[in-house]
Amino acid sequence: MSIVEKAIQSAQQSEIAFSKFIKPNDTGSTGGHQAGFHLHKNSWPLFFETEGQKGNNKDLFATIKWQDDFETSSRFIYYGTGTRNEYRLTRFGRDFPFLTDDNVGDLLVLCKKSKTYFEAFVLSSDEDIEDFFASLNISSTETNGIIPKQLEQTAEDSLVECFLKYIKTLKVDFPPTLDIASNSRNCYLNSYGITTNYIKSNPDKEILKWLEAEYDLFKTLENDRYSELIKKPFTSVENLVISANTILNRRKSRAGKSLEHHLEEVFRISELIFQTQVTTENNKKPDFLFPNIEAYNNPEFDNGKLILLASKTTCKDRWRQILNEADRIKTKHLFTLQQGISKNQLEEMKQYDVQLVVPKAYLSSFPQEHRADIMILEQFVKKVNATQN
Known about the structure:
This protein has 389 residues and is of the alpha/beta class. It is 37% helix and 19% strand. The protein is built from 11 helices and 14 strands. A hairpin with a 6-residue loop joins strand 4 and strand 5.
């Protein structure tokens, strides 16, 4: 069994599980003196019975088994005295392998097995991280906290009601990904009264909200479609495996396209001229080309007004795939939901003229000295708009 399979199984079978992207603040890349993994304040149920109270420190010593391989005697601690108000996981012993700069952007998974015994996994490759998200049916927006067990923990009643009304109208078990993306977005916008002008002013915030809404709708749809299936015993292990693979493959397929669909809506609302999946040299198909393929194929069109954007939920390994997607365009823009990448990889991206674009909320997860080189979505939209006016 691979590490990612063990991580998935452990998270599913645990009383409570947590995930987060490893950030520079964890590894010491920021130059701070704190050691160990910073844990979000909402993660306190993972290791304490009550939330930490300002003015007092509290801790829990626990054994953690890493990668199903070796154990550490570690310490969960809440710092509440003085100006501090944070949770950390510390004490790993010498030669601990997962607190280096190269681990920035990896996914840490913590699974509680008993009060003082945990299993932990560090997933490094894009494929492993995306497989974990798909298997747990969560999005990257749900990291840095407790992994939700069911929809009711993450969605407002009005939103769920809208989802259920939509599901009742379906003539098929699972509609196309585009249909799920647009209807989840519409439910969210209607439930919370979000206007077009607000989206134009807050694209970074809204695209994350849309992704959360889509994951919640998909969970609701799965619960509805598979409710009868899971009530009956499977007649053979083979039938169980076939059903599980069908569910997992559908999750992966949807997750891979949803980001593109929501970005397309941001660009449409922002009144940008663009095309998707057009064919350039060597039958390459960039996700977004601004303004269009006609301009790209016109040798007299100003190269400076041609912009390419690729979208990848994770990009630690896959950013190199976009390097030859459009020969006329020197700088390749890449929008990602990746939270943190090592300094070495960021420097390599810069060397190959890859311009990273991330949601504003994720910018702080990247090394301080590289943040000026990273765009947020709002800045990217303004840059494209400037080339079209």
